[in-house]
Amino acid sequence: MPRSVSETIELGGETTVHRLGFGAMRLTGSDIIGPPASESGARDVLQRAIELGVDFVDTADAYGPGTSERLIAEALAPYPEDLVIATKGGLLRTLDGDWLPHGDPDYLHDAVLSSLDRLRTETIDLYQLHRPDPEVPIEDSVTELAALQDRGKISHIGLSNVTVEELDRATDVADIVTVQNQYNVGYREDEDVLQVCEDRGIGFIPWFPLSAGALDAKRDALESIAAAHDATVYQIALAWLLQHSPVLMPIPGTASLDHLEENVAAASIELTEEDVARLGDS
To answer: Which of 29, 77, 137, 148 is most buried, most CB within 10 Å of its CB?
Structure first.
């Protein structure tokens, strides 16, 4: 039988958000560098997301770099009381297009302060280590985030792009409330990480929830199910994520108001037992 779908998830035992959020990576220029073609359009998308009931927005200092965080503040600050802003640090985006891990505690300290400034807030609701640095023990990176949490600069700590072993090591240092790894209906390489998150009540934020290349493996089934529900393939892919595990928190991103409304509407789609089976769920 398909699982019953909960609309919300509780982070860290105290912060409740809707499971379908918004990812703000695409509110930047080409290749995630610089400003978008229309900054006013990007702000309109953010404001419309909140109007539609989205209360979880995910970004990172590397998006732009700095552009996405700045636009979020311009569009939404001062923030609604129930809105959770999640950002990430520890992965430097260069103008040459590289993504360079920087998990040094001093670097993370400065990164958090910079994000606070760009986001125009006193406390970051959820701060995620963007990627473990192979040159820095993950314990050292998370210890610095925990120290900033003790100072009130961060409310909750999350991780991104981690293995089960790295998650275990990090949780020995601090309470981890979310993990953000690649995952979607066609790409399930981190099923072991998802299972650990489910067992421990840790939110799992799947990045690339609508990755077109990965969805091709399920294209025929997705198209057939979409036709039956008068929906798009992407809406069905989002509905599957929400039904697959109660800790999954998809954050589809878009710079289009029409696509935003389609994505949010996916939360109301109820897949049948046959739909789920065709997509390879157990």
So the answer is: 148
pLDDT in tens, 50-68: 999 999 999 999 999 999 9
Q: Which residues are catalytic?
A: 63
- List the domains of the chain with CATH numbers: 8-210+246-255 (3.20.20.100)
What's the whole-model pTM score? 0.96
